[in-house]
């Protein structure tokens, strides 16, 4: 795996470099700002970028904007965003800009090395990894629309776990139900949200986006 890091906190940045190189990951560049990130992506063409949301100069959403710009310039780039905060703009900008190779973890997860590395590898392999705390906080801000109101409590639970990027088997394990039950719930979610049959991955992301954007 070839990777670049954009993190303005020098201690965390260097800690990530040491951790990832210790895992055999090729860290091509570790930078402290959004402009440097874009230059590093253009120069090195990494497989994945690990990006802090809040970076200089204003420490608001520079990381998100840089990640969106990098993805548009290099659609094959995977992005794992790290943040101390839940940023709604992630769901509406970065996740909407591409249905795969996207992750969003709260920084506290980095201390849980196994969880962080599993998410990193999942995103680099083409999947998604959304922090469950992010999902919970975004869901708490939502306002129900007519279609979302049709979802049962269990269907909402399935959709919440789906938003973390887990597949059907992992959802079944998390919720202590059978694979067949998960398949049925997901089919019902698609039907209630008016998502036509097609590519399952795209429909899964579309369902998550519909849920996150209804705030």
UniProtKB/TrEMBL annotation:
Transcription recorded as keyword: yes
PTM-bearing positions, type 4-aspartylphosphate: 52
SMART domains to which the protein is assigned, alphabetical: HTH_LUXR, REC
Domain of life: Bacteria
InterPro entries: CheY-like_superfamily, NreC/VraR/RcsB-like_REC, Sig_transdc_resp-reg_C-effctor, Sig_transdc_resp-reg_receiver, Tscrpt_reg_LuxR_C, WalR-like
Matching PROSITE patterns: HTH_LUXR_2 (PS50043), RESPONSE_REGULATORY (PS50110)
Protein name, entry field: LuxR family transcriptional regulator
Domain HTH luxR-type: 144-215
Coiled coil location: none
Domain called Response regulatory: residue spans: 2-122
Signal peptide: none
Alphabetical GO biological process terms: phosphorelay signal transduction system; regulation of DNA-templated transcription
Keyword check for Hydrolase: no
Keywords tagged on the record: DNA-binding, Phosphoprotein, Transcription, Transcription regulation
A GO molecular-function annotation: DNA binding
């Amino acid at each position: 795996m070839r990777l670049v890091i954009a993190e303005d906190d020098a201690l965390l940045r260097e800690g990530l470099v040491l951790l990832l190189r210790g895992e055999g990951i090729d860290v091509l560049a570790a930078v402290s700002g959004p402009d440097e990130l874009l230059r590093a992506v253009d120069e090195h063409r990494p497989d994945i970028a690990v990006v802090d949301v809040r970076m200089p100069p204003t420490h608001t959403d520079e990381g998100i904007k840089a990640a969106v710009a990098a993805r548009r310039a290099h659609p094959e780039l995977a992005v794992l965003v790290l943040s101390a905060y839940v940023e709604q703009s992630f769901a509406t900008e970065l996740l909407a800009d591409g249905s795969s190779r996207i992750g969003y973890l709260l920084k506290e997860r980095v201390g849980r090395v196994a969880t962080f590395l599993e998410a990193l590898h999942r995103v680099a392999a083409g999947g998604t990894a959304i922090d469950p705390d992010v999902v919970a906080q975004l869901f708490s801000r939502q306002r129900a629309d007519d279609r979302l109101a049709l979802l049962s409590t269990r269907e909402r639970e399935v959709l919440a776990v789906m938003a973390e990027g887990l597949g059907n088997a992992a959802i079944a394990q998390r919720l202590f139900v059978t694979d067949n039950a998960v398949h049925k719930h997901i089919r019902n979610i698609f039907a209630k949200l008016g998502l036509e049959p097609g590519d399952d991955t795209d429909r899964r992301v579309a369902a998550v986006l519909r849920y996150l954007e209804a705030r």
